[in-house]
User: Fold this.
Amino acid sequence: MGSITVDMAQAEAKYRELGGNILEYASDRLRRLVRDGYVEVCTGYKGLTQFFLKESSAVTVPSKPVVVKDTVTLKEVQVWLKSKIRNNNTWALRALQIVYANQTEDEKDAALSIVNNKKGFGSMDAEILTSFAQRAEQNKPFSEKQLNCLRMIVSKYWKQVLDKAGLGVIKPLVLKDLSTF
Assistant:
């Protein structure tokens, strides 16, 4: 069997440099190879998944072979979660609800950040995000401009969203997006 492996970080950097995404390219190609019986999948050392060509297969291997990780770092979770919040209104509104729930009652009433407890909104964002949260609670519609503003501001509170959901819930979602087979 011939082994197909590559440093994922290097491959990702190269494909981004070329304007593509190694995971989008490779996952589709590898999914077809596995489905058609040309490639075996083996999870191995340090959480890496390796793909092995079967001896009898006469298949053209991509010039950039891939190793897909089955573990994620906190930085990868951060990037994924911030991206979800910045690009999806549903994620942004749910993040707003989570962070607003972390505000104290006094902070909610005053639309300020009073207690320095690393929970809820920061002092610069408290007024606008409180108004957005109250608007959402009253089921009032948001303009596109308000949604854009909300997505950009609330994404910086990704850690509170992670704390609420838990790494056990978020991690499989990140892995699924990074490599779907």
About this structure: The radius of gyration is 21 Å.
